[in-house]
Amino acid sequence: MSHILLIIGGGIAAYKSLDLIRQLSKAGHEVTPVMTKSAGEFVTPLSVSALAGRKVHEALFDLTAEAEMGHIQLSRVADLLVVAPATADMMARMAQGRASDLASTLLLATDTPVMIAPAMNVRMWEHPATQRNLATLKGDGIMVVGPEEGEMACGEYGPGRMSEPAAILAAIERALRPDQGPLSGRHVLVTSGPTHEPIDPVRYIANRSSGAQGTAIAEALLRLGARVTFVTGPASAAPPMGADVVKVETAAEMLAAVEAALPADAAIFAAAVADWRVETAQARKIKKQAGALPGLSLAENPDILARVAGMAVGRPELVVGFAAETDEVVSHATAKRARKGCDWILANDVSPETGIMGGTENAVTLITGEGAEDWPRMSKSAVADRLAQRLAEALGAGDGTASGGRI
Ligand code: C5P
Fold first, then answer.
1. What was the pLDDT predicted at 261?
2. Contact status, residue 217 vs residue 271, Cβ threshold 8 Å
3. Mutual angle of helices 380-398 and 212-223, in 10-degree steps
4. 4: how many CB neighbours lie within 10 A of its CB?
5. pLDDT at 64 (0 to 100)
6. Alpha helix (H) ranges present in 27-87?
7. Which portions of the sequence form the region Phosphopantothenate--cysteine ligase (predicted)?
8. How much is the pTM?
């Protein structure tokens, strides 16, 4: 059990902090709540203290609290300080090192690790001043979770929504045990889901990938302590809690996101990238004309896996691809491994009678430099756990010296 000092800032997202307290308590953590003055405009101290099962601290000069426990002590007995929601103003005050109220004083008077979950209007988030403060706070070693992109309370759309309580809880748990798990300190990149290649503003080329296997792999890697960057196309599976999620639409965007996320110790390419895109997507909807079919000319998409596997400098130590085949699975996948230049291929039989595409189970063959290894049919999450375990062994065994060819 850990002791979390939770500072609730004044933003509409403060209502989510009530659920965060509930989830933290349910996970066995002790929560000492602190509210800023403006937090009280959004949630009441009564509901906060009822959920935390403890008194809420609000004022800097609170004589009883000073007698019971100095405000400086308050932040030192905690294992982690969490600011959720962290408003633009709170981030600015933290970056400046101000001690203008109880919350900012606690944050200044401690060397306990601090995590913030920013929440604000998209323009405020994107403002150079906030981005400057964010860089300062990161430079000071402050952990940042979110914000997520989405519809804002103010009706605008973009990054600025506070992360969901479950995602904040996952980040807190990782922060509390940073050195656990064989992949701690390792960065793994995972691509997942389909890509959508626009034809015009309303139509696109896509495929049936649900993103289930990629998501399960990211979750398994997170369980082993890895830092995971999850680059996903528009998938139906919810992205994994606790990963750095980058949402993309097209193969070109996926390639750019992958390149931006490198360096990584390993990269797993589970995305079903569309092979082709329409050479020139139309800016306006193509009109239907009786008897006249639109001529769509296609262009080949970049092969993201082959590009990363072929990198002369900065190639991840282990590059893993997938091969979905309907016949002669092992021979086709073995040829694909050589063609793409990756270290491992996870091959699966996706012929319709297997029910694998879009289903919950998978039957794979792992193809490495040493040969082919059949895994029994199991759930996609069991496949993910086994792959993550193998990956941890391969990275550990290599001690950073393994070359692609040797794994
Ligand atoms: O060539 P094929 O699509 O069968 O190869 C599948 C593997 O290559 C998968 O790991 C997939 O994520 C990756 N891939 C890619 N970029 C593409 C096509 C496939 O990363 N454009």
1. 93
2. no
3. 50
4. 23
5. 58
6. 45-52, 63-68, 71-76
7. 188-407
8. 0.67
CB of residue 190 inside a 6 A radius of ligand 1: no
Q: Residue 329 Cα, ligand 1 centroid: separation in angstroms?
A: 15
H or E element that contains 371: strand 371-374
Closest Cα to residue 245, out of 236, 262, 259, 233?
A: 233
pLDDT at residue 291 in the model: 86
Please identify every stretch of the chain with a pLDDT value under 50, giving residue numbers as ranges: 397-407
- Copy the structure tokens of residue 389: 């375990």
Among 230, 303, 318, the mutation site with the greatest number of ligand 1 atoms within 8 A of its Cβ is 303
Decide if 342 is catalytic.
no
Q: Do the Cβ atoms of 239 and 185 come closer than 8 Å?
A: no
Tell me the average pLDDT of the chain.
90
Residue 108 CA to residue 113 CA, distance in Å, equals 11
State the Rg of the chain over Cα. 24
Q: Are 213 and 236 in contact (CB under 8 A)?
A: no
Do the beta carbons of residue 320 and residue 268 sit within 8 Å? yes
**CB contact burial 75-103 (16+ within 10 A = b; e otherwise):** beebbbbbbbbbbbbbbbbbbeeeeebbb
Domains along the chain with CATH numbers? 3-176 (3.40.50.1950), 187-404 (3.40.50.10300)
What's the Cα-to-Cα distance from 169 to each of 49, 84, 368, 395, rounded to whole Å?
Answer: 19, 11, 37, 28
**Location of structure tokens 């400098």:** 313
Ligand 1 test: best mutation among 205, 273, 357, most atoms within 8 Å of CB? 273
The DSSP H or E segment spanning 103 is helix 102-108
What is the separation of C-alpha 96 from the centre of its chain, rounded to a whole number of angstroms?
29
Give the amino acid at 337. Answer: R
| Antiparallel, parallel or unpaired: β 364-368 and 344-349 | antiparallel
3-state SS assignment for residue 250: coil
- How far apart (Å, rounded) are the C-alpha atoms in residues 100 and 107? 11
How far is residue 350's CA from residue 32's CA, in Å, rounded to a whole number?
A: 51
Q: Is 282 exposed, middle or buried (0-12, 13-18, 19+ CB in 10 A)?
A: middle
CB 342 within 8 A of CB 319: yes
Residue 41: its pLDDT value, please? 94
